[in-house]
Amino acid sequence: MSSAASNRRSEPVATLGSSQRRKPRGDGGQPKRSTAKKGTKKAAKKGKPVPVIASRSSMIRLRRSRVHGRGAFALRRIRKGTRIVEYLGDRLTHRQADERYAEKSDRDNHTFLFIVDRGVVIDGGVNGNDARFINHSCDPNCESVIDDRRVFIESVRTIGPGEELTYDYQIGRDRNDPPDVDEIFACRCGAVSCRGSMLWPPRRKARKTQGGEKRVDKGAGKGGK
To answer: Is 20 helix (H, G, I), strand (E, B) or coil?
Structure first.
């Protein structure tokens, strides 16, 4: 969900309070909860400089969104696989991000912090660009991609003029989450497949079968961001 406040996807795409920040999984690409945001895939190494895509005024425009606050909308047809915009902002260490938002309320679901990897967090709320207003959806038309320790938003299907850009924030869960954490991070994307929360579904505990083998119930969600 896009964040109107300067703290916090994963909008996305994801961000949270320092004591609740999720540590990045593997190479990052997830939102930071007190400092976290959106889900991301890692681009293949190409060995060439990665060009800056700060904004594309001919491609997207910000306006009021039915999902949350302001959103980014396509001004023209955007083909599948298009690298639309770079997620920009202050580049911080995890410690700096935690200190910056140490006083943030646990119940504040706005987030502009994006985990790149174990060493870098991007704070889109400071020196950020339009990318921070791209909202979350459980059935998105975009995804976030990490390339050379930078985050880009790319289309995963063709997007029509006037359609809102979205990606799955994939915000991770934490053992210290309050019981109503899914309400705090409620999703209002309206998709048929909406899971009702910007958080990944909780992991199902493995249980033993009669033969003593461990199994996980079908439909178990991905742990996360």
So the answer is: helix
- Angular region, 116: left φ>0, alpha ψ -120 to 50, beta rest: alpha
Cα separation, 5 vs 23, whole angstroms: 22
Which long-range CB contacts under 8 A does 218-222 form with residues at least 24 apart?
221/195, 222/170
Q: What is the pLDDT of residues 90-107, one digit of tens each?
A: 999 999 999 999 888 777
Mean pLDDT of 31-45: 51
CA trace torsion 163, 70, 55, 225 (10° rounding)? -90
Residues β-bridged to residue 90? 123
Copy the structure tokens of residue 72. 């980014």
Look at the chain and count its residues: 225
Two structure tokens written together for 107: 């119940």
Please tell me the distance from the alpha carbon of residue 179 to that of residue 209, in angstroms, as a whole number: 29
For the chain, the domain total comes to 1
220 is a domain residue: no
* Owning domain of residue 72: 1-203
Write down the pTM of the prediction. Answer: 0.71
Both structure tokens of 60: 């997207």
The CA–CA distances, whole Å, from 89 to 16, 85, 113 equal 16, 13, 9
Tokens of 225: 């961001």
